[in-house]
Amino acid sequence: MTAPLLRVSNASKRFGGLLAVDNASLIVKAGGITGLIGPNGAGKTTLFSLISGFEPPTSGSIVFDEAEISGLSPHRRASLGIARTFQIVQPFAGLSVRENIAVGAYLHCRRRDEALDRAAVIAERVGLASRLDAPAAGLTVSARKRLELARALATRPRLLLLDEVLAGLNPSEVRDIIPVIKAFVADGITILMVEHVMQAVMSLCDHVYVLAEGRMIAEGTPAEVTREPKVIEAYLGPGAAARIASGAASHG
Amino acid sequence: MSVARAYGAIAIAALLLALLPVMVQSNTVINALVTAMIIALAAQGWNLLAGYGGQFSFGHAAFFGAGAYGNAILQTRYGINAYAAMLTATAIGAAVGAVIGYLSFRSGLRGSYFALITLAFAEVFRIIANATPFTGGAAGTLIKLQVSAANFQFASRAIYFWIILAIVTAVMFLMRGIERSRFGAYLVAVRENEDAAAALGVDTLDVKLKAIMLSAAMTALAGAFYVQYFLFVDSSIAFGTWISVEALLGPIIGGLGTVFGPLLGALALHFLGELAKAVAGRVLGIDLALFGILLVLIIAFARDGLQGLLTRLARLWRARRPA
Ligand SMILES: Nc1ncnc2c1ncn2[C@@H]1O[C@H](COP(=O)(O)OP(=O)(O)OP(=O)(O)O)[C@@H](O)[C@H]1O
Ligand SMILES: [Mg+2]
Question: How far apart, in whole angstroms, are the C-alpha atoms of residue A42 and residue A18?
Answer without folding.
Answer: 11
